[in-house]
Amino acid sequence: MEEYVGLDVSMKETAVSIRREGKRIWRGKCASDPSVIADLVRKRAPHVKRVVFETGPLSAWFYHALRAEGQPAVCIDARHAKAALDMAPNKTDANDADGLAHLAEVSFFREVRVKGFDSMLARTLVAARTRLVRISVELSNQIRGVMKTFGLVVPAGTGSVFEQNVRNLLATHTPLATIILPLLDAWRSVRYQSSDLGRQLIREARESQACRLLMSIPGIGAITATSFAAAIEEPCNFKKSRNVGAWIGLTTRRYQSGEVDYDGHISRRGDDHLRGLLYEAASVILTRSKKESALRTWGLKLRERLGFKRAAVAVARKLAVIMHAMLKTGEFFNPNAGATA
User: Fold this and answer.
1) How far from 90 is each of 87, 94, 95, 129, CA to CA, in Å?
2) Measured between alpha carbons, how far is 309 from 283 in angstroms, rounded to an integer?
3) Please, what is the Cα angle at 225 between 222 and 227, to 5 degrees?
4) What is the mean pLDDT of residues 301-310?
5) Exposure string (b/e) for 218-255, b if CB count within 10 Å is 16 or more?
6) Does the structure show a pLDDT above 80 at 262?
7) Is residue 117 within 8 Å of residue 68, measured between CB atoms?
8) Domain ranges within the chain, ordered by starting residue
9) Which helix (H) or strand (E) segment is 26 a member of?
10) What is the mean pLDDT of residues 253-261?
11) In the prediction, which pLDDT does 341 show?
């Protein structure tokens, strides 16, 4: 007799439901700690076949920790689970756990690939640097906006030039300087930390064979290469390279019902940040890159026919396909390769 366990995970407590032969045999709550949950499952469900929980902030930790405890952990897509869990008359943690256990028993779910901790570290490094860069831009804009109110227009310039211009303008405005200088010090500190993370990111990208392969493509830098390699992890995770474009959300949606059948905008599913990076790289290829390639030629023809934005999206999708194929074969970018994907 096999048991199926559903976990509705929250920050402090986790609702647990156990089913066997189509019936619930136990449910309750315990601390949101994988070791505690593993002990409970061993006690209440010694012949467990699946331990199912939804994607969420704790899913990576729970998945790897439960697997290390010898539990058959399965992380499922929260969007798909929601449709089934909404059938319950009352939305409670216990009912959600029951629903997840039921999905595990009938195998009606879509399993999600949980990234390893190395990939999560790389993604965290990129995200931390990106956040610090945005904070520094927000602070510099705040400084410019406040000073403009008092008739002090900061000349164009970035970095040390910006700081010197601000200090020069504040030299004769002591009351305002007491407010702006703390913001300027915070801006300088954040900028220094973002630069430090940027150097760390570039150093790690140069040490990675996968990133070196991807950076051979014009328009692909350390940030995009690291983000893509961390998202894909192993090329064998995708049977076909063209599936990567759909996974990132760069393929069009389709709606069909009876005689109605049309394609809409791109799905925008998957990693928003990676999709944005690929779009930026495609824009660079179409506008700033001076290296001729079959990909650029194909993209420029699309721009003439469909406009810049649609062409950039198409090139971004093509980039995703090419980058996955490069990781699979281990070959550097070939600018003369055909553009058909």
Assistant:
1) 9, 10, 7, 42
2) 9
3) 105
4) 94
5) bbbbbbbbbbbbbbbbebeebeebbebbbbbbbbeeee
6) no
7) no
8) 3-106, 117-207, 212-329
9) strand 23-31
10) 79
11) 45
In this prediction, residue 131 carries a pLDDT of 96
At residue 110, does pLDDT exceed 90?
A: no
Check if the beta carbon of residue 101 is closer than 8 Å to that of residue 66. Answer: no
Count CB atoms within 10 A of the CB of residue 126.
Answer: 21
**Cβ count within 10 A of residue 68:** 12
145, two tokens = 């906006």
CA-to-CA dists, residue 117 to 59, 147, 330, angstroms:
12, 45, 23
Min mean pLDDT across 18-32, 145-159, 258-272, 276-290 is at 258-272
pLDDT at position 338, please? Answer: 62
Tokens of residue 292, six digits: 């001729």
**Amino acid found at 13:** E
Are the C-beta atoms of residues 7 and 81 closer than 8 Å to each other? no
Q: Please choose, from the candidates 4, 2, 6, the residue with its C-alpha nearest in 3D space to the C-alpha of residue 99.
A: 6
Rounded Cα distance between 301 and 303, Å, is 5
> What tokens were used for 295?
């990909």
Beta strand 48-54 pairing with 73-76: parallel
Q: Give the three-state DSSP class for 107.
A: coil
**Arch. (CATH architecture) of 3-106:** 2-Layer Sandwich (3.30)
Tens digits of residue pLDDT in 65-87:
999 999 999 999 988 888 888 88
Rounded Cα–Cα distance for residues 157 and 184 (Å): 14
String of DSSP letters for 262-306: EEEEE---S-HHHHHHHHHHHHHHHHT--S--HHHHHHHHHHHHH
How far apart CA 279 and CA 274 sit, in angstroms, is 9
Amino acid (one-letter) located at 291: K
Query: For residue 208, what are the CA distances in angstroms to 213, 214, 248, 272?
Result: 9, 10, 22, 23
CA-based nearest residue to 219, from 319, 329, 328, 327: 319
CA distance 294 to 136: 38
Which amino acid is residue 162, in one-letter code? F
